[in-house]
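[RESIDUES AND BACKBONE]
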Amino acid sequence: MGLLSVPILTSPDFGSFQNMAKAPGFQRSVLAYSLLFAFFYLNYHVLIPKFYSKKKRWIYAALLLACFLVVSYTPDLIINSPKPPSNLPFPNNPPHKTAPIDLFGFRDTFIIQFSMIAFLSILLRLDHRLNTIQNEKLKAEVNYLKAQINPHFLFNTLNSVYALTLKKSDEAPWAVLKLSEMMRYVVTESHAEKVSLEREIQYITDYIDLQKLRMGNHTNLVYEIQGNPSGQKIAPIILINYVENAFKYGVNPDELSNIRIFIHIESHSVELIVENKITVKNTSFKEPTTEGNKNTKKRLDYFYPEKYQLHIDQRDNFYMVNLLIDLS
């Protein structure tokens, strides 16, 4: 409203609507400011999110130039009237009248006005994006805290440890130590924004080792790590969800199970491939799994925007996840 009121407030015929509405200069000014108004929303809703935010800066600059030419020349093309001499601020301005001060200057070209509108829309869009990211981060943190330790895994592990103690197995102290290390990692280190990739992989290894306690000869497990994780950093507890799903749906004592977990590390990236045969079709797992996948996707979007590739292939009795993260 403030933008569209500028032509009215700066018109030399302000106070006489009929004279003002008939003046070609006023008509040209209203059209130009209306185009600026439209450009603001076009820039805010389309150009910035599709080009500026995605770092397509040259395309964005070219589109800005095109918009500037449209805003500058369209009024003159539509409203045909001779331009006023350069010493007169408004067309058809009588010599005895003094036009009000033009709030922006360069009225004919709209350079300053256009630049201000473009800059303002970028600032508002970036502020909106920042607020959205902060809200999503808070939601992701809450969901992440809720799901740090999968209760099914904890109960199953405690049951397995209990069975080992009844048998007085030498593996019982080892299992308690593994579970203790996992709990310590979750409680003390996983709140950091980035942790050592080596420690994150050790967490996954401990998880798999504990899962082996409840697996027998009916499960064929392949777990491979290639590359050196030393010196690399990653967001904590961001890979484990897909590993958990493999054991949740891929271990069945009444059916032959196949689980393959492959971690490939390069200088600035880590790739996780998880494949498993679906042997458990328990609907009670479906909702928590869906929520866990959504939370992991949100955390990936937050920590690695446009720096990861996630591919999930699900068929009747087969599930595969391929996640590649650029850690640079």
